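Running this now, will post back.
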Amino acid sequence: MTSRQRWLALMILCLGVLMIVLDTTIVNVALPSIRTDLGFTETSLVWVVNAYMLTFGGFLLLGGRLGDLYGHRRLFLLGIVLFTLASLACGLSTSQPLLIGARAVQGLGGAVVSAVALSLIMNLFTEPAERAKAMGVYGFVCAGGGSIGVLLGGLLTSTLSWHWIFLVNLPIGIAVYFLCTALLPNSPGHAEGERLDIAGALTVTTSLMLAVYAIVNGNEAGWASTQTLGLLAGAAALFAVFIGIEARVQHPLMPLGLFRLRNVATANIVGVLWAAAMFAWFFISALYMQLVLGYSPLQVGLGFLPANLIMAACSLGISAWLVMRFGLRLPLAVGLLLAALGLALFARAPVGGNFVFDVLPGMLLLGFGAGVAFNPVLLAAMSDVSPSESGLASGVVNTAFMMGGALGLAVLASLASARADSLRVVGADAVVALNGGYHAAFIVGAIFAALAAVIGAVGIRTRAPVAHEVELSSDTNMSGSAAQNS
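Update: finished.
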């Protein structure tokens, strides 16, 4: 494959990933219109979002492993087909069950695409400098896609109708499918000959789905309620069973030796904290602009535009140069510290805030931070594993980001609500109380980002090796001997 073909393939892969990333946020802007049109109640409306999150989070690990076994290209194309057909069903929905069911299928397709796309990119680009640049492009798509979704969602909903936030995926999905069949090499699965760990797949998928369900409904049901605690306990018990299975089965779904690799383990811990901080930035700052400053959905999307432009500049050039010049650790730590500072600036934004003085500085720092840090986090998570485990490593890091983001958002939203309630009790104005709650969430988000920076600076090796062979066989798991880090 020529260099030009590889970069074209990267653009198409990232277009498919962008379609998935957009759908996690583009729906939020259209929820009021969907509620009115289909007659959702306030309680049932959350399932338009939760149905997607539930299957997306639950099937990331399984999707990644299936890509290893049966071919990353094959699974990527299957995921694109599922997502595109489900988008058509969503766009044509005239009833609540059809929309919620189609959203669940969208989440399944999105999980498969997200889990194997990173593996395809890592296998397309094996030379360190090219790989760093390619990961910068992918990182920008992942980090910036959410805020682009708000802008696009506001534009489509206000000018056309909520149906078009789903129907717009059809031409994109069709184009991605046919271009991928032409550009991507049809390689067999690296792990062909192994059997799928059915027991492990069932236990970990059910565990993740229970955990996601508990998290996304935590605010509504109550974090100390029997339902939430029971679901979390059930998820933990199933995950413990999964670990027991993986330690004994001949061909494990997730070889435990993977977490003996220093960069892999550290990157996933950083990913959980970083995702929580990113969700604090994206969702809480959007709420601040909309509910405190009175911005329209389109204005909120435009408010994120400077950060997106800076993120693009950093991800597509500066980040790759920094990684090649200084390794993984320094760019990661500096980027996360800049993000922490940006969140801290949002924690002082007043009720009568001005965009230039109270929103833009935090946005600029967060754009720089996300653009610089995202690339080294992904590289660290993938760099120590062999090609036969790349889908699994991709699924693991995507799961870490997804679970960290979902849990972080739930915790920060609860914290903001509790703080706002306490301020109302002492007589604060409704908007002042709301803003006080957001300040508390931003402070904790800044702590998450700073803690991730410290862990990354201590735990990540200065220079990670390029995806070399690491023995992660069942014999390694059963004997308990460490996989070599070299």
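The chain has 21 helices and no strands. More later if anyone needs it.
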